[in-house]
Amino acid sequence: MKLEKRKAKIPTSIHSLLERRGFAELRPAQWKAIDAGLFDDKNLLVCTPTASGKTLVGEFAALNAVLHDKGKAVYVVPLRALASEKHKQFTKDYPNLKIALTSGDVDSADSYLSRYDVIITTSEKLDSLIRHRTPWLTSVKTLVLDEIHLLNDASRGPTLEVLITLMRSFLPKLQVIGLSATIGNPHELADWMDAALILDEWRPVRLDKGVYLEGKIEFV
How far apart are the C-alpha atoms of 45 and 191, rounded to whole Å? Predict the structure, then answer.
């Protein structure tokens, strides 16, 4: 859907950023997230296919936290390599914001991060920051959790669950955005998060399923 047709749904500061980046329209999942209260600080669980536009939903939430709510956004990814990649992307796309990356030393409070708008990190590092009672965490307005289905992972799941619980306990107005392409029980997870569930099947490239046998594929 064309961006201009529903301009009133998007905060002016964010709409201007989108225009400068050359966006003329948004994808279905993105509009569903906006309609469900993305810019009204509602919790959302976005469960849509790969390349359907989930990342931009997370970016919208982070931008809203900084530009509209005048707070900070924390963007959590599962791996340090992904955190570095996300930091490069954010720095390129939003040069006027202060973007920080922290994913290393888990025995530091990283007080210098108080000067930044968006902090990109891993669940292990954020868990450490919480346990260090890092003062700037009280300024966080939005928590974006990429690959939130890792709650079911034996190694990373417990840490992720604990940090979500702790952040929500001392930040009662925190907005939590969960992003994933592969959640087996999205309705149950959305209930636990107290979040609106965004489901959509649209994908930029058609996905066909088939069986390969003796040099031939039979599509189903």
Answer: 10
